[in-house]
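Researcher: Structure for this, please.
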Amino acid sequence: MGIPRFIKLPKHKQFNYAPIYWDQEKEAREERTRKIQQEMGVDVPAGPSRTTIKRGSFRQVRQKTNIKATRNSNIRLVVILAILFFLAYLIFYR
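Model: Predicted structure, token format:
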């Protein structure tokens, strides 16, 4: 038997991360062959080889959300300052 502890230490967290391999050259090669086959008149389905994620798309979305958040923050600040100035006017000049 061990000594009972009053303080329980947390167990370490375990993560099951399975890395995803992305071959950019293979994807570009498949896209080129698909375009060439379309130009030649061969019917090629635009299946799973076609990607909708473009380089820098996540960065663009993040920049847009940052701009929107900054704009909302500035508007909120202006409204709060206007209310404070109005309250100060009511208190000191009435």
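Researcher: Any notable elements?
Model: The mean pLDDT is 83. Residues 1 and 8 are 17 Å apart (CA to CA).
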